[in-house]
Amino acid sequence: MCLLATLVAGAGAASAQTSAQCYWDDLECRTVEGGLAAASPGQIDTVADAITGTRARFETHFGRPAPQVAVVEGTGRLDAQRGQLETDGYPAALPWITRAQKEDLKTAAIRKQVVDQLPPGTPDAVINGAVQQALSKISKVSGESEDEIAAAKASEASALNHEIGHVLFMEAYWPDRESSGGKHYGGPAPDWFDETAALLMEDDSMQQGRWDRLLDTYAEPDGFIPLDQLFSMQHPLLAAVQAYRGKDGATGSQTGAIVITGEEADRLLRAADIPDPELFYRQGLGLARYMMETSGNPAIFGAIAEGLASGETMESWLAADGAAAGLPGTVEALEAAFLDWLSTNAADRP
Ligand SMILES: [Zn+2]
């Protein structure tokens, strides 16, 4: 399995103007409405479409214009230009590591592990053979069908939407987030809210997969996180990712993106705070769906985000604004109504 965890470093306040400057000789740059894509020729369409699509989703679910965003392909290219991009009108910026680059990083990490385990002076041919053998165990090196390649491309694009969603959300509600002390996974919002904001940016099929799995599992033991816990817990991967950072063999960049693959990813997931870390994601998405449907407002997350950014908690927001939005007035009542709604949806499934 492959896990990309991104903790995004801070950027500063917004400014208004846009320019199409391209600061990277080896990348193509394209200005789209509200964004700058900087990517290799084979990726530029994907990146430009992701910016446009994610900004549209953001506006649907937050009811306000999305901040301007730059997405720069590859590791190590963005950091030196962050200040310049901000001046150019892109306060939000994301480094994007493609699937192929992740494969290269994985190969490099495996090569390092192999070399460490073999005696000094082992011939390259032996090392290469061992690397190939290890790679073949953890991924298909050939024989991907066209459908599989299309599916992988779609999920890569959806993962890019997700990561763009994190930076748009932070920039929109916490533009001065440097002062927050960085104790949260992605930003100053409660971790579940920050993560769910990004999940809402994913494409329909990725969201549908999470939704189906939530309906399959919410009634199982450990299949539901009590909402008072969900609203206050740290991201279940935060401690594990922090422990992993800087560890031998980890591949990373100064911007905080780390790539973890194979056995290392399994080990990291086992070190997470809850038995099934993906539950944190699918339950957040399910709760967002419940709130959108019950309130009849696809931008209900925007209304709550305004409250959280001005210092409300979920409890105080529900008490003050829940009834007007058509939602229960306490966390306890919200949980009961959400569980009812989940069981109705599970029963109504075809
Ligand atoms: Zn995320």
From TrEMBL:
Q: Which domain of life is it from?
A: Bacteria
| Cleavable signal peptide | 1-20
Keyword Signal: yes or no? Answer: yes
**What keywords are assigned to this protein?**
Signal
Keyword set includes Signal: yes
In its UniProt entry, what is this protein called? Uncharacterized protein
Which organism does this record belong to? Answer: Henriciella mobilis
